[in-house]
Amino acid sequence: MREKITSGQNKRVKQWRALTSKKGRKATQTYLLESWHLVQEAIKAQQPLTAILGTAEQLDRHADELPADVDVFELTESIANTIGDTGTPQGIFATAPLTRDEDVDPAMATGVWLFLDYVQDPGNIGTMVRTADAAGLAGVVFGKGTASRYLPKVLRSMQGSQFHIQVVEADLHDWISAFTSRHLPVYGTNLDPQAKDYRDVPALSAGAIVMGNEGNGMAPDLQQMTTRNLYIPIKGQAESLNVAVAAGVVMFRLVG
Amino acid sequence: MREKITSGQNKRVKQWRALTSKKGRKATQTYLLESWHLVQEAIKAQQPLTAILGTAEQLDRHADELPADVDVFELTESIANTIGDTGTPQGIFATAPLTRDEDVDPAMATGVWLFLDYVQDPGNIGTMVRTADAAGLAGVVFGKGTASRYLPKVLRSMQGSQFHIQVVEADLHDWISAFTSRHLPVYGTNLDPQAKDYRDVPALSAGAIVMGNEGNGMAPDLQQMTTRNLYIPIKGQAESLNVAVAAGVVMFRLVG
């Protein structure tokens, strides 16, 4: 079914526009994928989509790749320009259901996970999910204070990796306890040179790595719950590493 | 000397405003450091500064740390707001002379260097300079097509690392030839899984690592000049790594 929408006052258009806000996402229990790259990643990963929307030109260009069982809406260019976060959208979008976090049980989780504690920069967060995917991790848990996985900037920098690995929003206290009580190592990260050198622990096949806030690192109460806290020795005069770079260095050392 | 400037038409104010453009930087052979963090890094590293400028409040707050031999200009808040790149400046700046690239000779360079070929994102570039500093590299060469080291966004993400290690703009053909003719290894990076696994080469004490463009990787002609080209094996389904993360993984493996 391909339905044409020509009025900016259309109820669906208003709902799609609202997907840049948390309230709007909650109302329809969906979020927005912007650009063909992300829509294509979702289709390739056979993710459920609730709608595909785009200009006639974009829908025609990708007609062969669109799944037959998803409703398609053709928008005028001026309506397409009002949807999404980028000032100059490509003109193709999809809506996907919000993830059901309650389906993911830390007591059953396998493989290696990345836990994010109060990480705030959307670009850093998305890059870490993408890196976790590349390094072969099983999933990423967005803990308290970490920016939403549905923010347009997070989605852009994840580049579709949320379709390859699990991305969950949950309380890290629960996840750390669940892992350590199963005797799975949880390695925190620490800005203290007295902590354990990240190169001096064995490779991980199951367990977790925790990254903390850009400025303050991991919360002290979480640091006390981990198996060990690791440190990346700084050789030069830089005060610290970018959090996404640090996460990449540790993940590729211990897992990749 | 602390001179008060109250007119936005002042000649110096116009020059400072122009430092966000290449033309403006060329005219006075200086660039702008924005925020106390960067000004302080320059002072700590005893970098030559041509002027320090700020609001009365900011200058008073940091009076004890300002070097005695640099001219200080007190600006009204409304003038300070027109200088620099950030919408809401902190109100303190310094101007520093542009680097003299001709002072750096690849035939004499020691230690490990990072070469950037056509890297375009200012945040990625600055993060790589900061990471090179942290990993103990000697310097970074900005090759052709790489964004300028004086762009405000590059300066922000370098976080002052340009005062700790050398940052040069030069032709990578010259630098690669100079290194390989001295029998120093130059490791390119390659998106081809047939290339050498980055974990299978020995640690570097002198030589170079080359990172390429975000979308296209290193230029083919440069790849043919290197000692070897390295690949980071991707385990998951991500198509690639962010260039700054990839650089961090390789630098910390081979140098850090």
From TrEMBL, chains A, B:
Keywords tagged on the record: Methyltransferase, Transferase
Gene Ontology molecular function: methyltransferase activity
Gene3D superfamilies: 3.30.1330.30, 3.40.1280.10
Pfam families: MRM3-like_sub_bind (PF22435), SpoU_methylase (PF00588)
Span of domain RNA 2-O ribose methyltransferase substrate binding: 32-102
UniProt cross-references to CDD domains, sorted A to Z: SpoU-like_rRNA-MTase
Highest rank taxon of the organism: Bacteria
SUPFAM superfamilies found in the cross-reference section: alpha/beta knot (SSF75217), L30e-like (SSF55315)
BP term (GO), one: methylation
Family: Belongs to the class IV-like SAM-binding methyltransferase superfamily. RNA methyltransferase TrmH family.
Protein name from the UniProt record: TrmH family RNA methyltransferase
Lineage, top ranks: Bacteria, Bacillati, Bacillota, Bacilli, Lactobacillales
